[in-house]
User: Which sequence fits this backbone?
């Protein structure tokens, strides 16, 4: 196992433990809605930044709006707007393979983001 895989496993286990600690009785409906909206926003921001970097290196191309897509993340179904480019060359790396709606690595990333966000909220308080 290389260093990257080792770090990812530690991050995954930490995220799982944080979720169990923060939501010992499960997640209420309002919390699910809030987490879903947060995850949708985070994923869309990441994809937009990725497109911006992509277009900086593709001088004869421009942004061309978005298309809607849904992703299943285990507990949540995310409805996201995926950025596109005029030449059809851009595909966000954060998305699972084409025609897949769920990816284990993607679920782990999202849960890590939720855990980090919740943990930072406790530190601020």
Assistant:
């Amino acid at each position: 196992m290389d260093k990257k895989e080792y770090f990812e496993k530690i991050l995954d286990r930490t995220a799982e433990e944080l979720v169990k600690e923060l939501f010992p009785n499960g997640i209420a409906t309002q919390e699910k809605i809030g987490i879903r909206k947060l995850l949708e926003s985070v994923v869309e921001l990441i994809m937009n930044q990725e497109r911006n970097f992509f277009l900086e290196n593709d001088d004869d191309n421009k942004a061309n709006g978005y298309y809607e897509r849904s992703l299943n993340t285990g507990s949540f179904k995310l409805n996201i707007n995926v950025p596109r480019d005029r030449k059809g060359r851009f595909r966000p790396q954060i998305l699972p393979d084409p025609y897949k709606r769920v990816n284990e690595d993607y679920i782990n990333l999202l849960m890590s983001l939720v855990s980090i966000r919740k943990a930072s909220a406790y530190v601020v308080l």
Notes: The first helix runs from residue 3 to 22. The helical segments are 3-22, 29-56, 104-124. The first strand starts at residue 63 and ends at 72. Residues 3-124 form one domain.
